[in-house]
Specification:
The protein is of the alpha+beta class and about 750 residues long. About 20% of the residues lie in helices and about 30% in strands. Strands 6, 7, 8, 9, 11, 12, 14, 15, 19 and 20 form a 10-stranded antiparallel sheet that branches. An 8-stranded parallel β-barrel has the order 21-22-23-26-27-28-29-30, surrounded by 5 helices. The longest helix is centred in the C-terminal third of the chain and has 23 residues, at about 590-610. The chain is globular. The structure holds (2R,3S,4R,5S)-2-(hydroxymethyl)piperidine-3,4,5-triol. (2R,3S,4R,5S)-2-(hydroxymethyl)piperidine-3,4,5-triol binds near residues 398 and 466. (2R,3S,4R,5S)-2-(hydroxymethyl)piperidine-3,4,5-triol binds near residues 323, 398, 466, 503 and 505.
């Protein structure tokens, strides 16, 4: 809800109030956080007229070094980081003052960047005192978020240059808050850091042109005393997939300025007379219930306003992807056998990854030539699609539509399609970017995808993006994304029911911009379960599990050589969209049985795994994540490195109905007896030689079962006493309840209200 009250505006959603007042004709922030009342507004104002030290001011006006302004420029006495930096004919000082406001029941549709659905909008119009430019501050209120963006309009005859523009600027009082940031790089996406905020500035820049190469655009602020379930928690994000910048600056007084938007490095964008420049849209969320409250708020917002309606409640199919089984080296026989085996296991979607087109046998050639390699796919793609569909599976293909290899027919016939300001652009993974700003490139991509969907009867597409930008300025990146979003809108309009999976060498474009079109993202090429559990914990603060695509991969990780059981891999991968990515020909009969059980378990709890509220229940070194919906919860428990003398582990579950009773059960798991080494004789009734012929034969027909947990406890006991997990094996004491946890092992628990 938005209300104008005198010279103030109060924006209210289910979690927060955002109060702005006009001070010296500048919009200033009175409050952003837990809800306040309209009647509080006059008393939220502070008298800023007390001059401080060497403050500069215009006569009769307060000095800007104290005022929590909603937009900040250069050269008028506000020495914290500016939210905009403009230039006309070498001059950089502008002084935007409030002129007017209006409220739109439906948000203004002018912003060309992805926009959340719905909302009610407040627009504050500011004009430069010396004329010729205006600044609009847009606030869109949703049930669980406030979106902000701004526009600059050039009213002068000469070019106006934008050197920097934040989507928002928020001046909070500094009260010892901590910042939570997600650094990111290939194979190690979503690495969380909780930092104190120093005086001066903390600035995080992602300049590679793909949102999450360096940092994820999501970040958070926590009150000094906030805990997992209590205290002020603020979330910030951008609906944008290109280069961006986060800045947190603190002055010597009390202001903590928070900004996120376009980068201030190498950005120089000229706008003509009467033209408007738009910042991408930023999302601000808040919870007074700490990190888990913020998780819930972000999940609710993203599910209701970002994910395309067709996929809002659609269960993601259990996928099989051939990449780690074959890489680009496959033939029709191999693919047919994988399809048949996947179908037998209960898989619902078969995805043929990179290598099916042009002269693509490795990453050196073929990108751009999206015609089927009939030596590898005999009979053509439509025939393979039939083969897959006849076995009851959906069918999908990998594409990397924004790229080209110099060794490709596309490059040879259209070298001008390449994006570069230089004659010899840098290669990365032997490939170049296409110039998606160009209409002919846009049409080429749309035609390629739409025709493939129709001709090959595709149910799904994996859209990959495997290199950062180079050889162009940041303003080109901005235009590139305007072009790309246009392409994605056209494709989604033409193929509304095709499921798209977003991928950029894993999660290098894990952002709300891409999620506005593609409902889920391949989180990382690192499929090791412990690494993935860390990512799930970190990324779920900003994104719901339905946006995560996770695969169970081979027992020995292709990225780390770390060995874990298939059960452990599943226990982590189940939170999100589940898939399998390993050579099915290498599975034993018992492995197959195990995967069938996993898939059946997932299908039973899929709704919860995808759309449940993410909850962090981690303690000690254990990463414990839950997905909660109604009276049920699915819990993924991932342990770290084993230590001697393990301590008692207690899983505390807050927030359940304290009067009710809940049953909790472990998912039954099994171990390969050979993994016990010499200890095999502690679990075997007859003496066996470890890895001997008999042990090998027995291991083919017998799996050693994990402990079983089946308890009923009240919500009160779960909150105040907790679930005591069985003692961990520590050199002795094998029993039906003691937990055998190899290093980095995981378990799944299902909780349900019983009365
Ligand atoms: C990078 C992706 O993250 C992988 O899953 C795979 O699709 C390869 N690209 C194929 O080139």
């Amino acid at each position: 809800m938005i209300k104008a009250i005198g010279s103030a505006f109060i924006l209210t959603n289910e979690d927060a109030s955002y109060v702005i007042s006009i001070h010296d004709r500048r919009p200033t922030l009175l409050h952003y956080g837990g809800k306040v009342k309209e009647s509080d507004i006059p008393s939220l104002n502070l008298d800023y007229s007390i001059p401080t030290g060497r403050a500069v001011y215009t006569e009769g006006e307060t000095t800007l070094n104290l005022v929590p302004v909603e937009a900040s420029g250069l050269g008028k006495g506000d020495y914290l980081t500016p939210s905009y930096s403009l230039e006309r004919e070498g001059k950089t000082v502008f002084d935007f003052r409030y002129d007017d406001y209006w409220i739109n029941e439906e948000p203004d549709g002018g912003n060309p960047f992805p926009r959340p659905r719905g909302g009610e909008e407040l627009v504050l119009l500011l004009r430069d005192l010396e004329g010729q430019a205006s600044l609009e501050l847009h606030y869109i209120v949703y049930d669980h978020a406030i979106a902000r963006y701004c526009t600059i309009h050039n009213e002068g005859a000469r070019y106006l240059y934008i050197n920097h523009l934040s989507s928002f600027s928020l001046d909070l009082p500094y009260l010892g808050q901590k910042g939570y940031f997600l650094s990111s790089s290939w194979g190690a996406e979503g690495q969380a850091e909780l930092l104190d905020l120093p005086k001066g500035e903390l600035r995080f820049k992602g300049l590679t042109g793909s949102s999450s190469d360096c940092f994820n655009p999501f970040f958070a602020l926590f009150a000094k005393d906030a805990g997992p379930n209590h205290g002020d928690a603020y979330g910030f994000n951008l609906l944008y997939s290109g280069s961006f910048e986060i800045s947190l600056s603190r002055d010597s007084f009390y202001r903590l300025r928070v900004q996120e938007g376009l980068p201030s490095t190498d950005f120089h964008y000229g706008i003509k007379c009467n033209k408007t420049f738009y910042s991408p849209i930023a999302i601000l969320t808040y919870s007074d219930k700490g990190a888990n409250g913020l998780r819930r708020t972000n999940a609710l917002f993203i599910h209701s306003h970002i994910i395309r309606e067709n996929f809002l409640h659609a269960p993601r199919p259990v996928a099989y992807n051939n990449w780690e089984a074959t890489y680009a080296d496959f033939n029709t026989m191999k693919i047919h056998s994988l399809v048949s085996q996947a179908a037998d296991l209960g898989v619902e979607l078969f995805v043929l990854d990179d290598g099916w087109f042009g002269k693509r046998n490795d990453d050196k050639a073929g990108l751009g030539d999206w015609t089927v390699n009939k030596k590898k796919v005999i009979g053509g793609m439509a025939a393979l699609a039939d083969y897959v569909h006849e076995r009851g599976l959906k069918f999908g293909l990998w594409f990397e539509p924004e790229m080209v290899n110099p060794d490709s027919d596309l490059y040879r016939s259209h070298p001008e399609y390449v994006l570069s300001e230089r004659k010899e652009p840098c290669l990365c993974r032997n490939q170049l970017l296409l110039d998606v700003r160009k209409k002919e490139v846009q049409d080429f991509i749309v035609k390629t995808i739409v025709e493939a969907v129709k001709d090959y009867r595709l149910d799904y597409i994996k859209w990959d993006f495997n290199r950062p930008f180079s050889d162009v300025a940041q303003s080109v990146v901005y235009d590139y994304y305007l072009g790309l979003y246009d392409v994605l809108s056209r494709i989604c309009r033409e193929c509304p029911d095709t499921l798209f999976e977003n991928c950029a060498s894993g999660g290098m474009r894990f952002d709300l911009g891409m999620m506005s079109f593609f409902p889920y993202t391949w989180v990382s090429d690192d499929t090791d379960s412990y690494e993935r559990a860390k990512m799930q914990r970190a990324l779920s603060l900003g994104y719901p599990f339905s946006t995560f695509s996770n695969h169970v991969s081979a027992k020995i990780s292709h990225q780390l050589f770390r060995k874990t059981t298939l059960g452990t891999k599943f226990d982590v991968a189940m939170l999100g969209a589940l898939g399998y990515e390993l050579d099915l020909n290498h599975l034993s009969g018992l492995d197959e049985e195990e995967i069938k059980e996993q898939i059946a378990y997932y299908k039973e709890h899929r709704e919860l795994a995808l759309f449940g509220e993410p909850i962090d229940l981690s303690f000690g070194e254990n990463i414990v994540m839950g997905a909660k919906k109604g009276d049920e919860m699915l819990i993924s428990f991932c342990s770290g490195v084993n230590r001697p003398l393990p301590s008692l582990e207690i899983l505390r579950l807050e927030g359940l109905d304290e009067q009710a009773s809940y049953s909790i059960a472990t998912r039954p798991e099994y171990f390969d007896i050979r993994d016990f080494g010499d200890m095999i004789n502690h679990i075997s009734p007859v003496k066996l030689k470890p890895d001997g012929a008999v042990a090998n034969v027995v291991s083919k027909v017998y799996r050693y079962p994990s402990e079983t947990t089946e308890v009923t406890l009240s919500g009160a006991a779960l909150a105040h006493s907790g679930l005591k997990l069985g003692m961990k094996w520590s050199g002795s004491g094998i029993s039906k309840t003691s937990r055998i946890m190899f290093d980095f092992a995981a378990r799944a628990y299902y909780l349900k209200k019983v009365e």
